[in-house]
Every structure is written in C-alpha cells, then in structure tokens.
Amino acid sequence: MVLDLFCGGGGASMGYHLAGHQVVGVDLIPQPNYPFTLVTGDALSVARRLVRELRPAFIHASPPCQAASATRAFRNRPGGVRTAEPVNLIPATRELLDEIGIPYVIENVAYKAAGMRTDLTLCGQMFGLGVYRHRQFEFGCGAPIPGQPAHSRHVGLCARNGYLPTPERPMMTITGRNGHHSKAWVRKASEVMRTPWLSTDLNAVCESIPPAYTRYIGMSLRGEAQ
Fold first, then answer.
1. d(CA 189, CA 55)
2. How far apart are CA 60 and CA 97, in angstroms?
3. Bridge partners of 1?
4. Considering the domain boundaries, does residue 170 fall inside one?
5. Fewest CB within 10 A of the end CB: N or C in the chain?
6. What is the pLDDT of residues 110-134, one digit of tens each?
7. Quick count: other Cβ atoms within 10 Å of Cβ 10?
8. Cα Dmax for the chain
9. In this predicted model, which residue has the larger pLDDT, 84 or 28?
10. Looking at the domain assignment, is residue 32 inside a domain?
11. Which positions ≥6 away from 215 have C-beta within 8 Å?
C-alpha cells in the first residue's frame, strides 16, 4: 500500500492506483473530489500514527513549496490579493520520513530553490501529454529509483497560464491560480493532465501532477519495466 502525504486532489494517488497499488491519501484541506480513502489532517502530525495502523510499503510526499515555485513572482503583486508567506516543508518532511524508515519519494517543483536531490526528473512530454510540468523526485530509505527517461528537446510552444492551447501554442501552462481561468480552461487542464475527476476543481488541478508520473514510479516499485 502507498501512503500519499499532502495528496491534494489525487493526481499522484491515481498514478499509483493505475500501477496496481492500494492508496490512502492525507491532506490538511478537505478534498471532495479525491478518488480514494482520504484522511483529513496535518500530514506531518498524523504520518507516524497512520504508518502504525496501515503499515504501508511506500510513502509518497508532495509537501508545499510555493517559496520555490515560479508562481512566487505573482505573490503580493501590486493590485493583487495579499497571500500568506509561502513555506518550504521539504526539509521537515525529509527528516520525518527518514525517521520513519519506510521507502519513500518526495516530489516537488523542478527549481533549485526547492532544495531537492534530483534522483529523477519527469516531464509531460515523456508521456505524450500536452503539458511539460517538470517535477523532481527524491528517493529515500532504500526506495528503488526508476530509470531516467530520455528528456528530449521541447518542440511545442506553451500557451500563457490561464489561456487555452492553440495550434500555434499547443502546450498548456498549468502553474498556479494567478491568471484568467475559465471553466473551459479547468476542464481542458484536467483533460491534458489526465485527471478528469478534477474537471471542476481549479485549485486541485493547478496543484496536481499527471498520474502518468507516479504510474511510472509505481510500476518500478512492482519491479515492472515500462
């Protein structure tokens, strides 16, 4: 079983499910569209108890790290809505998971400021998706590290965040909630990410990762090549 900490709307959880794993998610914010068993609570506070109760074989964690995200440029911009100071929970998450001692992976944005060790980098283009959405993965406590897929040169141009793709700019940009986001955009973003259960959930689709990423990792956990 996989315990998915900071699970959000369930993009990562779905990937493990598609790879044949049972999944339980944990998130501080209620996630009405989450497709599996959800524990609502602070992930760092309840993780030890859930490990004792559920005995997962693997832990996935996607701790918030808006401080390192590209969307930090939009925080408190003139005329905008002021937001709370972003927090980097990666160090605290890593420390907790090392203490627990179960094989794990931490996922986060592909920016040096996130402070991640890059054992694996995944991009939507590797899986035929209409979004690049680079993410880094750091593995610990003996977790097997999947092979790094070839990361070929990006060809398609990206539409601006909040805008639908066009023939001239066929790749979507799905990075945060700072732009113009129509209902049609949310539906298209969920289609491109292959998270159809999030087709009406702006926050969740913006913070999710494509299930293809964690399916790739989940297959590796089962010892199955892609």
1. 34
2. 10
3. none
4. no
5. C
6. 777 778 889 999 999 999 999 999 9
7. 26
8. 52
9. 28
10. yes
11. 15, 16, 18, 19
Radius of gyration of the chain (CA): 17
Distance between CA atoms of 11 and 36, rounded to whole angstroms? Answer: 11
Owning domain of residue 108? 2-147+210-221
Provide the residue type at 60 as one letter: H
Place of tokens 């209620």: 30
Give me the residue label for tokens 């979507």: 172
Rounded to whole angstroms, the Cα distance separating 54 from 9 reads 21
Bridging pattern class, strands 120-122 and 58-61: unpaired
CATH number, domain containing residue 25: 3.40.50.150
Using alpha carbons only, give the angle 149, 131, 74 rounded to the nearest 5 degrees.
Answer: 120
Q: How far apart are CA 91 and CA 158, in angstroms?
A: 32
Residue 105 tokens, joined = 């992976």
Residue 217 lies inside a defined structural domain of this protein: yes
Residue 81 has pLDDT above 90, yes or no: no
Task: Enter the tokens of residue 76.
Answer: 């408190």
Average pLDDT of every residue of the chain = 89
Going by the DSSP 8-state scheme, the letter that residue 218 receives in this structure is: H
**Structural domains in the chain (count):** 1
> In the numeric block, which tokens belong to residue 46?
């309840």
List, in sequence order, every residue forming a beta bridge with 23; answer none if it has no partner: 2
Give the pTM: 0.89
Q: How far is CA 203 from the centre of its chain?
A: 13
**Nearest alpha-carbon partner for 144 in 210, 219, 226:** 219
Looking up tokens 């750091």 gives 138
Is 183 inside any structural domain?
no
